[in-house]
Amino acid sequence: MKTVVLTAAAVAALDQATKAAVLACFAPGESVAVVPGFFDLCLVLNRGAAWGILAGRRVLLVAVSAAMLALLWFSRRDLGSTRAGRVASGLLGGGIVGNLIDRAFRGEVVDFLDFHIGREWSWPAFNAADSAICIAVAILLIGQGVEAWFQNRR
Catalytic site residue 102? Predict the structure, then answer.
């Protein structure tokens, strides 16, 4: 449990610190090329969830975040049975908390990482919390795949 809480706290703190830095340095819509044609730092204020879906549904998104944290809490025994599960739980919890803080107190999520290929292709801007959530899901999926592979080999 200690790993989960420490990881979640570190992720949420990193997320909020990076968002504060971006808010202090950028105006909404402003961007700076870090790797021209591939990666920019920017400030995007997202009133929705991923890709802006459910924009303006703040109460619903806060409720879904709270429900996900509750689900994570009630799944702690299953997810906490392995080190990978504990790390993934911490990353997931910290990511959810980081974006929940934005939604609850700002009414929108601060996104600032913008990857693209030239002007033809662009991934929606995201933040440290989003990154932690994606890494957690990958760890959980890979863990399930490895476990299934070993089960089939027996």
Answer: no
